[in-house]
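Look at one record.

>
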Amino acid sequence: MTLRFDKLGVVIAVIVTYAAFVAPFATFRANRIVPGQARSILEALPPTLGALLLAIVIAGGIVALLRTSLILRLVASMIALVALAILIGTAGGFLTPAGNTFARVAPASGFWLLIFAFTLLLADVLTRLNLSPWARVGVLIVAALAIGALLVSGNWNSLSILKEYASRADSFWAEGSKHITLALGSLAAAVVAGVPLGILCHRVEPLRAGVLNVLNIIQTIPSIALFGLLIAPLGWVAAHVPGAGALGIRGIGTAPAFVALFLYSLLPVVANTVVGLAGVPRAANDAARGMGMTDRQRLFDVEFPLAFPVILTGIRIVLVQNIGLATIAALIGGGGFGVFVFQGIGQTAMDLVLLGAVPTVALAFAAAIILDAVIEMTSTTRRADPA
């Protein structure tokens, strides 16, 4: 009997082999800033649990390597991910000396590579299963609930990132609120301004090239440079315009970060509005004219509904982009999760960097999945609706 290997499974098996036997599973540090000491799976866990985890990841790698059924690959990836999530917390407690509050235990490269490998396997299975939009959102909710349960259970409390969180819990949620407000607020402002501007560019062709070229130029300016360019004019406005300071407008802080994110958001919204409206079938417009619809009625009852999935795609791009770019706002006092990222860089504390980076990545990932599902549902609805 000839064994058949899965192409993606070969890559996953190589990653699993390296992560399990070569790369360190966890890092132990006497305190938060000293260099860490690498620990393998068998060194980071009690002997029985270490052997069990090795057996699970090896079995998962074999399942990925061979052309096995989708159900078996799904079960193997989920068991491996659950085992890794639980046992990294166990490793934290096992490696931390009793009563020691200064020691830090963090997941090392081997852990992250194993998480990546089995997440890749799980994503491949879910893609092949061709799940409905609601099912994909359901998977996201289940994953979020599982992570929430681990956090509430205290299993991860001995890990360094949770120790960093424990000492900054109040500021973490305050900065998280600022981060989300910046990302969503700038998106809302861009939609309010960008959709009408896109409609205008679609209707007035000579205006289209000029507007899109200007927005393209803004998009090419590095984020830090754009934040810096806005400090002087907003500082002048705060100093010379009555009431501007009371509204929160000043040279540094939230105002320049908000304006910069708003400017970055305009191009995807305007461009996708133009593309969406341009893609409306001529027959639909001709039929609407034949029914005696006015230009305004055609726009809101025919063109805009048909163009909405494309416009929503631009909004998805903006939201994911803004969640990431809002991290940079911390450099000019705008707050957000970037506060922890840059504090960690300044203090050479990687766990503090992760405290800001991990929720940012999680928010962007969740936003992408949810809006992708909404776009697909909207597109399906439009195709199914003959009107």
Notes: The chain has 15 helices and three strands. Strands lie at 26-29, 37-39, 104-107.
